[in-house]
Specification:
By secondary structure, the protein is mainly beta. It is built from one helix and 28 strands. The chain folds into two domains: 172 residues, Histone H3 K4-specific methyltransferase SET7/9 N-terminal domain; 142 residues, Outer Surface Protein A, domain 3 (Alpha-Beta Complex), CATH 3.90.930. The longest helix is centred in the N-terminal third of the chain and has 13 residues.
């Protein structure tokens, strides 16, 4: 039975909601050994039990870490630690019974792995910071199978094959008749500073056709060193953001983290936001070319959550709304004209 992208996204969201996590690193001392471990998704009320070796005060080698929140069981990690940080092969089991098994790098599950959900859904493919990100397959409980590229746990480019043989194609999160992807076959040299050129749509191009360019050094395939800075053709900074994964051909497939700033061509700030696991979280502020604030919203996990304000270019308030999980709360929207009168 054919499903729309929206229906599939809802199914995926329901599958991941129970064990979704917020990135907040914190060192925690296990209460049974006094051995320190780094919790990349710390929250208040966390306690831990570590079963394994402790070297120089840090969990090291193979072991088992059990995590509790306010005394309630949260998860178990069985695998390798290095100086208190998850490093190597491991398995993470959540309270709902779902599991993630794969490789951990700097405390984060990154690279090829497997995730099995409580409802028997199964993902086999690439991860970035615990998120399904990269090529993989997702088996739904009803027999549908998605094959293709994921971006931050969401379907991006690929196809859905239903048990009755129906095939549905998706390109950049939209249903299409067929998929057209441009491949440049670009394979950068690792460890060397490079200049990459892009057209106005951020397709890779020659120096002569550039609208933007960037200096970048890759320490591994698709993994840049430090913050990525992109410039206008005139040399003015366009954007700076930390890329955990940088796709060579489609900016929409990249995975960004931390503070991001975008600029107008004259150097004034255009937008300032914060990203957690490639999704806007915190305050997102955009500006008019004259420097006047245009909009300011509060986000959590890519969805508006809290107060959102808009202004006219003359500085007068245009609207104010309060959101929850991406939706405006009832009777929580007011719009003004340029004279400050409620519409």
């Amino acid at each position: 039975m054919k499903k729309t992208y929206f229906e599939l996204l809802i199914l995926l969201t329901l599958s991941i909601t129970a064990n979704s996590q917020i990135l907040k690193e914190e060192w925690v001392v296990s209460n049974n050994q006094g051995c320190k471990v780094l919790d990349p998704y710390f929250s208040e009320g966390v306690t831990m039990d570590w079963e394994g070796s402790c070297v120089n005060g840090n969990a090291t080698g193979l072991g088992k870490l059990t995590k509790f929140i306010d005394g309630e069981y949260d998860s178990t990690y069985e695998g390798e630690y290095k100086n208190g940080v998850r490093e190597g092969l491991g398995k993470l089991t959540h309270a709902d019974g779902s599991t993630r098994t794969g490789k951990f790098v700097n405390g984060q599950m990154t690279g090829e792995g497997v995730m099995i959900y409580e409802d028997s859904s199964k993902y086999v493919g690439n991860f970035v910071n615990y998120n399904k990100h990269g090529f993989g397959t997702f088996d739904f409980p009803d027999g549908d199978q998605y094959i293709g590229f994921f971006v931050s746990d969401e379907l991006y480019n690929g196809k859905i094959i239903s048990p009755d043989g129906t095939v549905t194609y998706y390109h950049k999160k939209r249903e299409v008749d067929e998929i057209f992807e441009k491949k440049s076959n670009y394979r950068p040299e690792i460890g060397v500073e490079l200049i990459e050129y892009f057209d106005k749509y951020f397709n890779r191009c020659t120096k002569e056709n550039q609208v933007y360019y960037r200096y970048i050094v890759y320490r591994a395939d698709n993994i840049p060193i430090d913050t990525v800075k992109t410039y206008y053709k005139n040399g003015q900074l366009y954007a700076k953001v930390f890329a955990v994964y940088q796709d060579y051909d489609d900016e929409g497939k990249s995975f960004y983290e931390g503070d991001a700033i975008f600029y107008y061509e004259d150097g004034k700030i255009k937008q300032r936001l914060h990203l957690v696991n490639n999704k806007v979280s915190g305050i997102d502020t955009s500006y008019y070319p004259n420097g006047q604030m245009a909009e300011q919203s509060i986000y959590l996990g890519g969805l508006r959550n809290g107060t959102c304000k808009e202004w006219y270019e003359n500085g007068k308030l245009k609207s104010i709304a309060i959101y929850q999980d991406g939706y405006i709360l009832p009777d929580m929207y007011v719009e003004y004209d340029e004279n400050g009168v409620i519409k």
